[in-house]
């Protein structure tokens, strides 16, 4: 990723969408026009790179989405030791409508979406069809991934369509580049949002090359759509898409967990990772999860791992049960090795998850597409250095997900789709849904608030 300074002006207008009142008082001379900003393929490509950079900020995929999700999903496995009140609210499942981290996440998300929309609105500047297809596919992928995490966090769970007609998030497809473009949309239904995500990813999978370096690829689009399909209970789609990515031959499991995380280049099992360098992107995860030895805070890490977490392991010879450390000189809290570098890429979809998606979907459907569920689970267990199972229950697959994908932002969504309570809260508790930020509703009265707020 590279810095493109003129994207800054564009970002000012991206943040106009659903932003607070004072952001509307920007000098009109800063307004962008199609004539001076969107007239060449290079400029549109740079806006796309700006969208990647926006997504990689700490407010979104650079850390806070994962932190929000893990603390909301915590029921004793984690301990919040930090002093930030916003994150303390997530852990307590008592989030205020004025929570600044939630507001920043919402605003950053619609900035990503707006930049993707600008790209998609100006594809006619590309004369090279291959380049145009790649740019369009990447923009659709970025828009889809952003909407997917928005609807999972700001709306009710949608297991098999049970809440299809409930409020999701606003679907915005018109780019905002001038004041006249600003819209004040209502929230679309959960069903409409998921349909929109699915179409974007299906198109992206057709447009993108099968491999695309550290950018979105056809495999990344298929992998994300497999995750979307699993979330909504479309097991046949989840199974087939996961199988396509696994069978593509572009990815392999690393032999050691230390090769999976904290990499400056994608690992062999990263289907898609958010890119972080010393000059671009941010990795706020180690700030919250690491001790000061690895860039965190002195004493215990802001988020430490507690003893109940280790109860999911059937043997402590499991490498995943030993991927932790304690800095006895400054604290006694257990910290994960997953986030010990502030300039490391952040894995978003790994091959290991695709094996588990295929295993779960095959198990539910009673099929063995690509491999048997038992074999897929044992592939993951073998990498962890533990014994293979001789038979398989559904709970075994879910336990493998909890072990393998721990602290990567999956537990809350798994519990909600499987209708498992989190502590004393039912899976569909309003306290597990983020509030629509109050400052967004102050500007846009068409935004309805979630239950319980």
TrEMBL record:
Residues 342-421 form the RagB/SusD domain. One of its GO terms (cellular component) is cell outer membrane. It is found in: Cell outer membrane. The keyword Signal applies. Keywords: Cell outer membrane, Membrane, Signal. This is RagB/SusD domain-containing protein. Its main location: membrane.
